[in-house]
Amino acid sequence: MIRGQVKFPGDYTVKPGETLRSVMQRAGGLTQFAFPEGSVFTRRELREREQRELDMLANRMQNDIAFVALEGSVANQAGAASALSVGQSLLSQLRQAKAVGRLVINLRNLMAGPIGGQYDVVLRDGDLTPVPARIDARGLYRHEWR
Predict the structure, then answer these.
(1) Distance (Å, rounded) from C-alpha 86 to C-alpha 112?
(2) Mind giving me the DSSP string for 10-40?
(3) CA atoms of 111 and 20, how far apart (whole Å)
(4) Predicted local confidence at residue 146, as pLDDT
(5) Is 55 exposed, middle or buried (0-12, 13-18, 19+ CB in 10 A)?
(6) What is the distance between the alpha carbons of residues 110 and 88, in angstroms, rounded to a whole number?
(7) C-alpha dihedral, 50 to 52 to 53 to 55, nearest 10°
(8) Hey, what's the torsion of the CAs at 56, 42, 127, 32, to 10 degrees?
(9) Are 43 and 101 in contact, with CB atoms under 8 Å apart?
(10) Percent of the chain at pLDDT above 90?
(11) Can you tell me the distance from the alpha carbon of 114 to that of 57, in angstroms, rounded to the nearest whole number?
């Protein structure tokens, strides 16, 4: 799926082994308003793996917090309640975090290079490439006159 500042955004059927460069070529390439440095390539498999890792980290953190809380109450340490509160807050934030599945690419170099070049990426089902527009400090499209 290619969204944003390409000439023909949309969902594209991808053949086995096909690359992002070849699909971008089918999508007509970047528009004059494209900001390739702001593009975020995401992959479903990476997002799922990252989410599993986040969930495992949260579970370990919950166990560690419980252990520290138990040690603090047994030792009757001052500040244990405060540390527990901070830990619970961090745990809550971690549990709310959602994985992105971002794969860092250099879209400018990818578009300048050949299909299958060093910056190209072999696509998989569920990949997403939104290409944002270049915006100036006033929030307006910045036209580059060349």
Answers:
(1) 48
(2) B-----TT-BHHHHHHHTT-B-TTB-GGG--
(3) 9
(4) 35
(5) middle
(6) 43
(7) 120
(8) 170
(9) yes
(10) 44
(11) 40
How many Å apart are CA 25 and CA 21, to the nearest integer?
Answer: 6
Rounded Cα distance, 1 and 23, in Å: 9
Beta pairing partners, 141: 135
Distance CA(78)–CA(114), nearest Å, equals: 64
Q: Which two tokens stand for residue 125?
A: 């089902």
Tens-place pLDDT, residues 21-35: 999 999 999 999 999
Residues 73-104 have pLDDT tens digits of: 666 666 667 777 888 888 888 889 888 888 88
Nearest to 24 by CA among 116, 89, 134: 116
Give the CA count within 13 Å in the CB-facing half-sphere of 84: 14
139-146 contact pairs (CB < 8 A, 24+): 141/33, 143/32, 143/33, 144/32
DSSP 42: E
Structural tokens at position 79: 């500040």
**pLDDT greater than 50 at residue 145:** no
